[in-house]
Amino acid sequence: MVCTTHMLLETYLLIQIALIPVIVKEFQLGLLEASLVATVPSIVQLLMNIPTGFLADRISAHHLLFASMLIEGLSALLVSLTTSFWALVLGVSLMRISIPLYHICGLSQVSKLAKPAQLNRSMGVHNAFGSFGSALGLISLGVFLSTVGWRWTYLFWSVPVLAWGFLVLISSELKADIIGEIKTMTVWSLRRLSFIVSSGLLIFLTAIAIRDVGATGSSTFMTTYFVETRNLSESIASLIFALGTFIGIFGALGGGYLGQRMGAKKALSSTIIGCAISLLVLSIVSGLYLLILLYIIYSFFSNAVWSPMNALVADITPASEQGLGFSVYFLTGAITGSIAPTAAASVIVLSDVWFVFPYSILFFILSLAILQFLRHPSKQ
Questions:
Q1: pLDDT tens across 148-174, in order?
Q2: What are the two backbone dihedrals, phi and then psi, of residue 148, each rounded to the nearest 5 degrees?
Q3: pLDDT of 376
Q4: Is there a contact between 48 and 41 (Cβ–Cβ < 8 Å)?
């Protein structure tokens, strides 16, 4: 139930990024303005993370999962009716509210249900479902772009998203006692935050924040690079981008396998190295087939990072504050996600779309260096 919810939620995740070259043309925008379709929704997501974290440890899972599906489906219907750029930004921003509602609750449930020895593998399966959903969304976008128009992508997926939300609501599998009942209601706010803050958590959050700046910069403008620098059509660029998310299914499973065999920290370090090397080669190869091959390799490693990162959060934070731990983790990602697209766009405007690659690689290397200071975490 949780993994299928993740799959449906992720169908919209990368669509607006893939649409940036289309948005630039349709609404006659500059690249810096168009980047706001990624930046503004990320700010909304940022603001929702901490309150959602407090809710996740106190409210039944099926209620939060239903809320995420309902917001996602209704927001998608709004986006399908947009006729202006700012209406599009508003719709996508409302849609982003559903992301922390789902992820903090869903990952907390996975970490509680999985046995410690199988945590990395369970996270890998969970992330694989998400990658599959992203792939479905982008493939459908490529089809609709070349036929009836991109807005139909949002309309099409709103139906199964809303239907699944109501199935989750009535499901007996996820109906559980409110976790927060075992806690005293006076334990709240900054006092609860103090339970999870540690040197290990701070090092980890710093490392992933820097990694996210690089990863967000390259992913936001990947289709723009395909269209403007490699002269591919928008629909072909979208399909190649979708291919990367399909490969992400195997990347997520591979990340879970590596985490189980090597430990989460070593697996995360290895995948970041793979991202940096493959992105470097991608930026200098010539020929369409080599470009696609290197993008596939990069997509594998960029999706493999999530399983060990999620497992590290579960290891570093106390079991009683798992939801809050994931909320701080996603808050960090939301902060970087809110500034990274505009920061990368500013660099591109001053140089060229290609320059986003060395820009991203630099942040990958810095992240890897900081991660080495993290001592092997043990469950608290």
A1: 888 899 999 989 999 988 888 887 666
A2: -100, -5
A3: 59
A4: no
The answer to whether residue 363 sits within a structural domain is yes
Neighbour-count burial of 376, counting CB atoms closer than 10 A to its CB (0-12 exposed, 13-18 middle, 19+ buried): exposed
User: What distance in Å separates the CA atoms of residue 191 and residue 65, rounded to the nearest whole number?
Assistant: 27
Angle of CA points 322, 326, 328, to nearest 5°: 120
In a domain, 107, yes or no: yes
pLDDT in tens, 332-357: 877 777 777 777 777 777 777 778 88
Number of domains into which the chain is organized:
1
pLDDT bucket at 365, cuts 50 / 70 / 90? very high
Domain hosting 122: range is 2-176+187-371
- Cα separation, 126 vs 4, whole angstroms: 9
DSSP 353: G
| Residue 81: CB atoms within 10 Å | 11
Instruction: Map tokens 């508003």 to a residue.
Output: 90
Average pLDDT taken over every residue of the chain: 79
CATH assignment of the domain containing 56: 1.20.1250.20
Q: For residues 218, 246, 15 and 280, what is the CA-based torsion angle, rounded to 10 degrees?
A: 10
Residues 303 and 274: their CA atoms lie apart, in Å, by 11
In the chain, at which residue ranges do the beta strands (DSSP E only) sit? none
Burial 313-345 (b: 16+ CB within 10 A, else e): bbbbbeebbbbbbbbbbbbbbbbbbbebbbbbb
Report the candidate in 82, 108, 111, 106 with the shortest Cα–Cα distance to residue 95: 82
Q: Quick one: which H or E segment has residue 93?
A: helix 85-96
